[in-house]
Amino acid sequence: MSKSMDRMKELVGILNEAGRAYYQESREIMSNLEYDALYDELLALEKESGIVLSNSPTQNVGYEVLSELPKVVHEKPMLSLDKTKDRAALAAWLKDKEGLLSWKLDGLTVVLTYRDGELFSAVTRGNGQVGELVTNNARVFTNLPLSISCKSEVILRGEAVIKYSDFEEINAKIGDVDAKYKNPRNLCAGSVRQLNNEITAKRNVNFIAFSLVKADGVDFENSRQKQYEWLKAQGFEVVEYKRVNAGNIEAAVKEFAEKISENDFPSDGLVLIYDDIAYGDSLGTTAKFPRNAIAFKWADEQAVTRLKYIEWSPSRTGLINPVAVFEPVELEGTSVSRASVHNISILESLKLGEGDEISVYKANMIIPQIAENFTRSGSIKLPERCPVCGGEVKIEDSTGIKTLYCINPDCQAKKIKAYSLFVSRDAMNIDGMSEATLEKFIDAGFIKEYADIYRLDRFKDRITSMEGFGEKSYDKIISAIEVSRTVPMHSFLYALGIGNIGVANAKMVCRAFDYDFDRIRRASRQELEQIEGVGPVIADVFAAYFEDADNNREVDELLKYITLTGVQTSTQQKLKGMVFVITGSLESFSNRNELKELIENQGGKVTGSVTSNTNYLINNDINSSSSKNKKAKELGVKIITETDFLAMIE
Known about the structure:
- There is one protein chain.
- By secondary structure, this protein is an alpha+beta fold.
- It folds into 5 domains: 2-49, Orthogonal Bundle (Helix Hairpins); 71-296, DNA ligase/mRNA capping enzyme (D-amino Acid Aminotransferase, Chain A, domain 1); 302-406, CATH 2.40.50.140; 412-565, 5' to 3' exonuclease, C-terminal subdomain (DNA polymerase, domain 1), CATH 1.10.150; 579-649, Rossmann fold (3-Layer(aba) Sandwich).
- 35% of the residues lie in helices and 22% in strands.
- Strands 12, 13, 14, 15, 16, 17 and 18 form a 7-stranded antiparallel sheet that branches. It has a 5-stranded mixed sheet with strand order 2-11-10-3-9.
- Strand 21 (579-582), helix 22 and strand 22 form a beta-alpha-beta unit.
- The chain starts with a helix and ends with a helix.
């Protein structure tokens, strides 16, 4: 019993740490496969011993939320689902009943409440008991109905997801490899939990309903399928499902599996629920699982191969990532030969060595991962020098996760990544200046600082004689460089690669200082902290950048070749100091952002919710019973139409 208890304690600690990393910090310290195996081992030990520790992940659902968003207690606890990887077990679970088989979506679960036909609240799942209020963010989901025809209280659950196509498009705009998002789930979770819903709106978050909790006065004839059909009629996108029984369930699972490679949304399995609502509810729940539904997790296709070597891949920040390179194998219909090992801790836990026999799989049938190392030779040695510059490296241990860094500030990899960010689309937008091209120019000594990009014409003869280049290639690059000489100020700020300054923060800083670059570079930490969305950390990094003499010299050199432009603001500023909220459909503007820009151009400010600080609520339906109209009337905030607004500024 002592050994079992020790192992249980060890497993609880490992799994809880992995859960905290995944749910609270959007990082992974072990694969899904490894987590499931350890979880199943713990479950077996608990059944065998009859002992369950109070902090066991088999009893606790999720983790406490950590953010500045308001917290809300769910009316009904949101339990997770029991799971199986056995297709035959699904038929046994159904018995003689019929069920609905649907995708298990991999995003962020959100509970919506509608009152009087209007969206009243949106709350994240959180830890299952307490979630975060994200109503303003839900209002900008791309496919969410803000009003529905049913006027009684409606509560439903669904998954906020970002499509793979949108995820790839967002990442494609980020020149800095380190700044790219790891997967759609993490991007979606961060997007939904933003404090600024303008950011959420730009991420194309979709809401897909999967469960109706409450709809007073509506008869669904005791059928989940009828509920889905009703939700569709109310304007919701509903998760794809199939009606199944014990006889056709395995064929249905196969049909879903064949669609995975074509899906534009992330999923990590399937969900089976009884169609008979009363029967499912009569089964009750366990401490952790409802008994009316079960999750099916894909039994990941694995292949055995041999590890050839670990490739060490440096980045702009100095982080050196281990990547496993192995003999190619076929997985889920594609050839795979590489998989990220993520960090030194995972590398050491797998005890990897060159020539080791390993098994690999695609997590959720998509992302290559190492499942197991059968040889476990542990012969891989950490590099003592940076593989790019030969400089000194060091191991950092942050929250128990070991990572390898190059500490040479002049590392070529850091330079290439920094220049790659500088020329990227959201920065200087120099088309055709790829990372490979930059590497060639840096190696040849053509580029030693940012301003050298604008002096490349000095090396025309040498560039046109380089392998892969000619007159046409040279002319194309020079033409793109010429176009980039006039650039928006916020793009220039972002291009400088100042830590924590993304495009959104750069815009905020420029706007706060009226697009006056001299004021921006002289801004104190205190002045910067007054800007909405800029905290002490960002303020310190930003101010420190412009306190550095070398940075200022490089910026001054750049400004000899570049003209900065700002947002042209109205000289009259008729709306200066006024706060607006926009709701409902628009007629004179193509979208809310267009109206928002006009308000800001006139010196006003647009917020997402009506408060005592709001001056005007713009709503073409002045007599609407929406929650914003009600709030405006309660607070004495004037409600105006687009026509009224346009009259104010004309």
